[in-house]
Amino acid sequence: MDPSEDWLRRWHDRCPGATSRAFLRAKPSTYEWLAGHARPGDRVLDLACGDGILLARLRARGVQGAVGIDMSEGELSAARARLGPEANLVKGRAQALPFEAGSFDLVTCHLALMLMRPVEEVLAEVRRVLRPGGILAAVVGGRGMEAPVENAWTLLVRRLREEPFDGPSLGDRRAFSEEGLRELLQSFVNVRIESMFVELSGTPDEVAASLWETYDAARIASARVAVIEEALRADWQALLRPDGMLPCSMGVRCVTATTEAFR
């Protein structure tokens, strides 16, 4: 197992549901964007399904029997608690999917594809398990996207740039940029990439809790966490709205790609 993959698995075992806790209040909803690509009769696979929040959204839209796969037992336990014993959940890796070729109409992935290595193996597996004409829909991190205005997220990124990271590098740099994504998705057709900012605003405590449950924050020296948080909260004072809410927005890229209709 790649060192970064092992690090991510252990992190998610410790912090199941961290992604959904932050992105459930996202506007527009990245989970709804993904769920919107499914039709009631579709066979759907959710890669890195986490605590099952997207599977719950699919169920609410009438998609029965969607499958979730994740390498973290902590996340899968949280998903079972959310979805009940009838949920179809599999422990496994996206690089070696335990499904027959052509098993799915739609494969979804929320903020995980850019972290998977080797990502070429993941995409080859996605192509294999999708039916001809099947769709991959993924939300990936928008590294390099410039926020229109300064907010809590941009201030965190600025602070963390000054800190040394402890642990392996995460993901494939190509999957964080539009140019790199198009290179990686050359074997698909109808590739569409939309850049957007999602609002994650909340009270300072809500925003702080979300920001500290991130991979970057988890890889800084523990002795520095309190120092950085104190500095950030001082920075945030100038951003607070009259209602006490703190603006926070993050760039993401929403990707769709289709397999060839005939192979």
Structure notes:
This protein is of the alpha/beta class and 263 residues long. It has a domain at 3-142 and 172-199 and 249-258: Rossmann fold, CATH 3.40.50. 37% of the residues lie in helices and 20% in strands. Strands 3-2-1-4-5-7-6 form a seven-stranded mixed β-sheet, sandwiched between helices. Helix 7 (152-160) runs antiparallel to helix 11 (222-236). The longest helix is centred in the last third of the chain and has 15 residues, at 222-236. It is globular, with a radius of gyration of 18 Å. The model has no long low-confidence stretch (mean pLDDT 93). Residues 45-137 form the Methyltransferase type domain.
Helices and strands in order:
Blueprint: H1 3-14, H2 18-23, H3 30-35, E1 44-47, H4 53-60, E2 67-70, H5 73-83, E3 88-91, E4 104-110, H6 119-129, E5 130-141, H7 152-160, H8 178-184, E6 189-199, H9 204-212, H10 215-218, H11 222-236, E7 249-258
Parallel strand pairs: 1-2, 1-4, 2-3, 4-5
Antiparallel strand pairs: 5-7, 6-7
Helix pairs in contact: 7-11
As residue ranges, the low-confidence spans are none
Quantity of strands, as a count: 7
DSSP summary: helix tally: 11
Order of helices and strands: HHHEHEHEEHEHHEHHHE
InterPro entries: Methyltransf_11 (IPR013216), SAM-dependent_MTases_sf (IPR029063)
GO molecular function: methyltransferase activity
Keywords: Methyltransferase, Transferase
Protein name: Class I SAM-dependent methyltransferase
Which terms would index this structure?
263 residues, alpha/beta, Rossmann fold, seven-stranded mixed β-sheet, 7 strands, transferase, methyltransferase, SAM-dependent_MTases_sf, Methyltransf_11, Class I SAM-dependent methyltransferase
